[in-house]
Write a structure and sequence with these properties.
Length: 206
């Protein structure tokens, strides 16, 4: 992340560049604005970062190429796949901790990558408390409500699964970057939020 003041020296320096440099920059940014000379420094950085991101996605940027080379060398040296098996085991234990915290069984799947877990909370609510309760949830809450509650109550930010072509009421949990104990806690927090919904439903029926 880069932050600069609105009143900064970069825009002034850009305006004072030699004509040949300004012409080259105009060519560089003409696809995003009709007047490249007025494009602010911060907007130029955004445009350049998108180009880097596109090259990352395509696997063409230098950091990507170096990383892919290191991965290939590692795979050649680790003939028994010990590193891969160790990391898969860690991911599997984290997934088991997450589902244990929610109190749901985890079916075996030998093809599961497990780098992310996507939990359909509406389907979970229906299995746990019944279809009437799931219909109540759908009618009275937004799909992102659980995400916001979890952020407020546990300072944990999950992504809504709808942005990843998952069910609207799903959440996406990364299993790659938190301590083991955090995953069971996340599962417990999600279950507690479900309990809050269920209590509100029971109160409404009285």
């Amino acid at each position: 992340m880069v932050a600069v003041s609105e009143d900064n020296i970069f825009d002034e320096k850009l305006a004072r560049l030699p004509e040949s440099d300004r012409t080259a920059l105009a060519t560089r940014y003409e696809s995003i604005t009709l007047d490249p000379a007025k494009l602010r420094f911060v907007d130029r950085m955004v445009a350049d970062s998108r180009s880097v991101a596109l090259n990352h996605t395509a696997g063409l940027s230098l950091p990507q190429q170096v990383q892919m080379t290191l991965f290939a060398l590692s795979a050649l040296l680790d003939e028994q796949d010990a590193y891969k098996q160790a990391t898969r085991s860690i991911i599997a234990r984290r997934l088991h901790a997450l589902t244990k915290g929610m109190g749901v069984p985890l079916p075996e799947d030998p093809l599961r990558a497990g780098y992310y877990a996507e939990l359909d909370l509406l389907a979970w609510a229906e299995r746990h408390w019944g279809k009437d309760f799931a219909d109540y949830m759908r009618a009275n809450y937004e799909p992102t409500d659980m995400v916001f509650r979890l952020a407020e109550q546990g300072s944990v930010v999950l992504l809504n699964g709808g942005g990843f072509d998952g069910p609207d009421w799903s959440v996406r949990v990364s299993l790659a970057n938190l301590p083991m104990r955090a995953y069971e806690q996340i599962g417990q927090w999600l279950a507690e939020i479900g309990e809050e919904y269920q209590q509100a439903w029971q109160d409404q029926k009285r």
